[in-house]
Amino acid sequence: MARYKGPKAKISRRFGEPILGPSKALQRKNYAPGQHGKGRKRKQSEYAVQLSEKQKAKYIYGVLERQFRNIFKKAARKEGITGENLLKLLESRLDNTVYRLGIAPTRRAARQLVLHKHITVNSQIVNIPSYSLRPGEIIGVREKSKSLLAIETSLKSRNAKRANWLEWDGGLMAGKFISYPERDQIPEKINEQLIVELYSK
């Protein structure tokens, strides 16, 4: 399966929430896409509910199936609750952290900034969106990229909405990954237990 590049509103309507950003289509058509979208809703099987939750998490974080499975295996090996470990590992991805810091308006945009070598980790350019950050690492904007209009606009609009497990220095245009977030700090509406049950079968 290739990375999804299709219409975002269609995915938001499928799950009934704006998982890929605000969508006017979701407000106008609050039912699933397709010719049967307005039809009678059938009760989903247990497996269908679990699969839907996994798909939703994959779309939110922009992760492919193999990547997602590998992250889950890593989460299962760690001490603690597997579902919470999974979300912590997803949140520690470089592209997600760039988004959380407000350097990019969406995770897709954050991925592009990383791929195009606009982002540094500990003053070294890193162009791997899936790079897993460790507590204490510094994420910054490359010196030549600090004047990019897209970055400046995003930082202005996201100034007061940063995650509280991150620190931001506006003067240096750099942030610090302080620690892995706790479950109640992660705003995404994901039932991680359903994903654990799916992979446990």
Structural overview:
Helix content is 43%, strand content 8%. A hairpin with a 4-residue loop joins β4 (166-169) and β5. It has 201 residues and is α+β, with helices and mostly antiparallel strands. The chain folds into two domains: 8-34 and 42-89 and 190-199, Ribosomal protein S4/S9, N-terminal domain (Ribosomal Protein S4 Delta 41, Chain A, domain 1, Orthogonal Bundle); 94-179, Roll (Structural Genomics Hypothetical 15.5 Kd Protein In mrcA-pckA Intergenic Region, Chain A). The mean pLDDT is 86. It has a five-stranded antiparallel sheet, covered by helices on one side. It is built from nine helices and five strands.
Summarize the topology.
Blueprint: H1 8-15, H2 24-28, H3 46-61, H4 65-77, H5 82-91, H6 94-101, H7 107-115, E1 119-121, E2 124-125, E3 138-141, H8 149-157, E4 166-169, E5 174-177, H9 192-199
Antiparallel strand pairs: 1-2, 1-3, 3-5, 4-5
Helix pairs in contact: 3-9, 4-5, 5-9, 6-7
